[in-house]
Amino acid sequence: MARERRCSVRELQQTVTPEEFLEWVAFQTIDPGPELLGAALIACQLHNMFADRAHQITPSDVLGLYKPPRDPDDIERELFAFFGAMAKRKDTPDG
Q1: How does the average pLDDT of the chain come out, rounded?
Q2: What's the CA gap between 49 and 51, in Å, rounded?
Q3: Do 45 and 61 sit in the same domain of this protein?
């Protein structure tokens, strides 16, 4: 999200509400962007070129991504870490 807004993570924490961040995460889950479309096209072409392979080539193979299933508790800890740091900063006299 910081990259999309061209700002630092610190700036992002100061301007984004938890609700807005969760909405962005949900949207990224259903629409990961044009990179995935390009990777899907490349994966289809590679699969057609190497059809005798036992492993089907996927967009994740092309992008070099592997996202194992995430534990909801891990996600919750990350959100608390992200927004907890923001809340602590606001509690300080100069925050």
Answers
A1: 75
A2: 6
A3: yes
Q: How far apart are CA 95 and CA 90, in angstroms?
A: 4
The domain total for the chain is: 2
| Interval 43-72: pLDDT, tens | 888 877 776 666 677 777 777 665 666 788
| Alpha helices (H) in the chain, listed in sequence order | 2-5, 9-15, 18-30, 34-49, 59-63, 72-91
Q: Which domain holds residue 12?
A: 1-31
Angle at 33 between CA 80 and CA 27, to 5 degrees: 40
What 3-state DSSP class applies to 68?
coil
User: What's the predicted TM-score (pTM) here?
Assistant: 0.36
- Tokens representing residue 50 in the block: 């190497």
